[in-house]
From TrEMBL:
The keyword Protein biosynthesis does not apply. GO terms for molecular function: monooxygenase activity; nucleotide binding. InterPro entries: FAD/NAD-bd_sf, Flavin-dep_Halogenase_NPB, Flavin_halogenase, Trp_halogen. Signal peptide: none annotated. 7-chloro-L-tryptophan binds at K78. SUPFAM superfamilies: FAD/NAD(P)-binding domain. FAD binds at G11, G12, T13, A14, L338, I351. It comes from Pseudoalteromonas porphyrae. L-tryptophan binds at E347. This is Tryptophan halogenase. Keywords: FAD, Flavoprotein, Nucleotide-binding. It comes from the Bacteria. The active site is at K78.
Length: 511
C-alpha cells in the first residue's frame, strides 16, 4: 500500500522541525499530504533555547531568512559553551572555566597544536585559546560576524540562542506557507490499532476519527503514540547521567545589557546551572540530582545564583526522565523530539537530536508499507548508536572532572556509572591524543573537535611518549598565525549587542 497521508502528532520545535524536513523532502509529490495535529491545551516545555552550528544548514535549507529568524525569535549568537567551576576550585581557582568553542582548526593542525600544548602547557595559554581565536572573541563579548557579512556566513562558526516558543511559530509559518502542511488543533482521545499492531487511526475530541498511513510522534514526554499506544519500552540511563530535575526561570534584562555570545554552564555540588542570554531576557535553569540535593536546597542555590536579579520571579520545576526508547521507529510510527527520549540540557542535545533524526527520516521516507520493515531496522540501528554516543559525550563532562567536594562528583567518577564504550576511549586517550579515526561513524553526532575541547579544557592527562617533545616549527608558526588572526578579528568584529541591534534595524545581506 502506498503511503500518502502523513500525520505529525504535536507541535513545538520537534513537530514543526519534522514538518519542515518532511515538507521539503516530499513537496514535489502532489499525492502526499502532511497534517500536524496539535493540542490547544498543552503548553510547550519551552526551555530548549540553545542550538549547535548545524542548525544554520537546516534553516537555510528551509529557505528561512537569517534576518527574519533573528528578529522574530529574539535570537542571539552562540559561539561556545563556557563551563565554569567544572574543576576543583582549590586546584584551579574560584570560577575556573574552559570553553567548548565552535570554531576549530583543521584536524591536522589540531593534532599538532594539542601535542605542543600537552608538552608545553606550563608555559603557554589555555587549550582553547591555543586552538582558536574564538576564545578571546567570546571573552571580549564580540559577535562572530559583521553587519556586512551575508546571512548564515561568519568570520567564526556559530549557532544561536533563541526563544523556543517563537521559534516553533516561525517554523510553523514556514511549513504551512512553503510546504502546504495542514494544521489541526485537537486533543487525541484514542489511538486505534490494526491487527498487525500498526496504527490505523486517531480519535480526537473535535475532528472525529482521523485515518493516516504514517504517524510521527512529537507529543513530548507524553509519547502518546510510541509509548502509550505502541508500548515501546524505555531505556533508563539515570545510573549514568545522574541529574533528573531542573528549576527554570526567565529573568528580564535591561535593553542595553551586555549579551554574552555563549552559553554559561556553571557547575555546583549536585549538577549545574545554564544561563542563556536573549536580547531582552535570560533563560536560567538549575539542573540537579534529587538523590544528591533536595528541592529546597536547589531553590536556595538558584536564589543565590540570581542574587538581586531574582526579584519576584517564580521558578518552574521540570522532572526529567533520563533515557530513550529502545526503538524509535515501530511499524508505521516514528518518534522524534522528547517522545524519543531526553538526556539532559547539557550541550543542547535535545534540538540537535531532533533535527538530526528528522533529517535522516526525511532522506529515507517510505513510499509504501512494503518498505517499512527495512527502513525501521536501518533507522533504529543508526539512532540507537547516535543516542549512545551522546550519552558518552555528556558523561565525559562529569567523569573526568577532578572535583571531589560532594558525593555527586565522586559518584560520577565511579566506573559503574561510566559506559564501557567511554571507558575504552578514555583508556586509549591516556596514551594517545584522540584522532578522527576514533570517531568512525557518521552517526556519532559529536566528533573529534568536541571531545578535544572538553578533554583538554578539563586538563585530561594524556601521557605522551616523550614528556617534552621537540618544539615543532610548524606548531609555532600556527600559534603566531593564530595571534595575528585574533588581533585582526578583535579590531574588526562588533560588540554582540551592537550587531544584533543593527540586524534588527537594517537586516543582513541575503544569499
Amino acid at each position: 500500500m502506498d503511503i500518502k497521508k502523513v500525520a505529525i502528532i504535536g507541535g513545538g520545535t520537534a513537530g514543526w522541525l519534522a514538518a519542515n524536513h518532511l515538507g521539503k523532502a516530499l513537496c514535489n509529490k502532489d499525492d502526499i499530504s502532511i497534517t500536524l495535529i496539535e493540542s490547544p491545551d498543552v503548553p510547550p516545555i519551552g526551555v530548549g533555547e540553545g542550538t549547535v552550528p548545524d542548525i544554520k544548514k537546516t534553516l537555510l535549507s528551509f529557505g528561512i531568512s537569517e534576518t527574519d529568524f533573528i528578529r522574530e525569535c529574539d535570537a542571539t549568537f552562540k559561539q561556545s559553551i563556557k563551563f565554569v567551576n567544572w574543576m576543583d576550585k582549590k586546584e584551579h581557582g574560584e570560577n575556573n572555566f574552559f570553553h567548548h568553542l565552535f570554531d576549530v582548526p583543521l584536524r591536522n593542525e589540531a593534532n599538532l597544536l594539542t601535542s605542543h600544548w600537552l608538552s608545553e602547557k606550563k608555559d603557554v595559554c589555555c587549550y582553547a585559546e591555543m586552538l582558536s581565536s574564538q576564545h578571546k572573541i567570546c571573552e571580549e563579548g564580540l559577535a562572530p560576524k559583521s553587519i556586512t557579512t551575508p546571512e548564515y556566513q561568519g568570520d567564526l562558526a556559530y549557532a544561536y540562542h533563541l526563544n523556543a516558543a517563537k521559534f516553533a511559530k516561525l517554523l510553523a509559518s514556514n511549513a504551512k506557507s512553503k510546504y502546504f502542511v495542514k494544521h489541526l488543533l485537537a486533543n487525541i482521545t484514542g489511538v486505534n490499532l490494526s491487527e498487525d499492531g500498526s496504527i490505523f487511526s486517531l480519535t480526537t475530541d473535535s475532528q472525529g476519527e482521523l485515518e493516516f498511513d504514517f504517524y510521527i510522534d512529537c507529543s513530548g514526554f507524553d509519547s502518546i503514540l510510541i509509548n502509550k499506544a505502541l508500548k515501546v519500552p524505555f531505556k533508563d540511563v539515570s545510573k549514568t547521567l545522574l541529574v533528573n530535575r531542573a528549576l527554570v526561570v526567565q529573568v528580564p534584562t535591561a535593553a542595553d545589557a551586555e549579551i554574552p555570545p555563549y552559553t554559561v554552564a556553571t557547575a555546583h555540588q549536585a549538577g549545574w546551572i545554564w544561563d542563556i542570554a536573549l536580547s531582552s531576557r535570560r533563560g536560567v535553569g538549575l539542573v540537579y540530582s534529587s538523590s544528591h540535593m533536595s528541592d529546597e536546597e536547589a531553590e536556595e542555590k538558584l536564589d543565590n545564583y540570581l542574587g538581586e536579579s531574582k526579584q519576584n520571579l517564580t521558578y518552574r520545576t521540570i522532572p526529567m526522565k533520563i533515557g530513550y526508547r529502545e526503538k524509535f521507529w515501530h511499524k508505521n510510527c516514528v518518534a522524534l523530539g522528547l517522545a524519543q527520549g531526553f538526556l539532559e540540557p547539557l550541550e543542547a542535545t535535545s534540538i540537535l537530536l531532533t533535527d538530526f533524526s528528522a533529517e535522516i527520516l526525511a532522506q529515507r521516507f517510505p513510499s509504501s508499507t512494503a518498505q517499512l520493515a527495512q527502513l525501521e531496522k536501518r533507522f533504529n540501528h543508526s539512532m540507537v548508536y547516535a543516542w549512545d554516543r551522546v550519552v558518552d559525550f555528556i558523561k565525559l563532562h562529569y567523569c573526568i572532572s577532578d572535583r571531589t567536594d560532594s558525593e555527586f562528583w565522586v559518584d560520577n567518577k565511579k566506573s559503574a556509572t561510566i559506559p564501557m564504550s567511554l571507558q575504552e576511549k578514555l583508556a586509549l586517550w591516556e596514551s594517545y591524543i584522540p584522532i578522527s579515526d576514533d570517531f568512525f561513524s557518521h552517526f556519532e553526532v559529536f566528533f573529534l573537535e568536541n571531545f578535544l575541547f572538553v578533554l583538554y579544557g578539563m586538563g585530561f592527562k594524556t601521557k605522551l611518549k616523550n614528556d617534552r617533545l621537540p618544539v615543532c616549527k610548524t606548531s609555532l608558526a600556527m600559534i603566531n598565525q593564530r595571534k595575528e588572526i585574533t588581533n585582526h578579528l578583535q579590531k574588526m568584529l562588533p560588540r554582540h549587542r551592537d550587531l544584533l541591534d543593527k540586524i534588527k534595524q537594517f537586516g543582513l545581506q541575503s544569499l
